[in-house]
Amino acid sequence: MNRLPIIALxxxxxxxxxxxxxxxxxxxxxxxGMELYYKEGPAMIARLKDMGHSIFLxxxxxxxxxxxxxxxxxxxxxxxxxxxxxxxxxxxxMTMALEGLDKGTPVGMTRPSIIAVTQLTSTxxxxxxxxxxxxxxxxxxVLHYATLTKQAGLDGVVCSVHESSAIRDSCGDQFxxxxxxxxxxxxxxxxxxxxxxxxxxxxxxxxxIVVGRAITEAPDPVAAYxxxxxxxxxxxx
Length: 237
Prior knowledge:
Number of helices: 11
Oligomer: single chain
Radius of gyration: 17 Å
């Protein structure tokens, strides 16, 4: 998947998603999550592909290894560009997810990228310790999951911008660091707690950014997208 910002299509119908995308021109990177995929299924993926968009299918698989392997074998046939699992499922589950993806990728096609969720951007230190009973810091937990993910052979992780730099130092520049929770400087936090601007993400070493409501709920979604794209691409300067 190229490095354009990924727009989270957090809609509950294909009509809403297609109507939203109709105001944009050219190729886009889009994320299809549980809400839209569970409502519309593979037909939604096929429609987005016909429109020429690259797709990150964000289903966060987390189950016993054989089940995840079988699911990935099926999902590979959709020919999306990137999929994910939960790193908390463990090394064996991640390795078997990759095996399933390899097995299901049609002959002659490139295997989709596969990444693992570390800690959600809605998770903070208090939740980590009191509800997950993890006594390490949030950054230590995320870095541990990232290391396991790389050892399992996956292409990268989903993490917040606040951990991107440490993951870059530990796992390298080419290891994907896909960061949601992207907001403009004066944007609302909504239900996310660890957020950052596009410039923050680039400086920290994120390789991809995922942007949802900052674009989809903006008065002018195209203008918001172009502003975020410019900040993301220009923050090397």
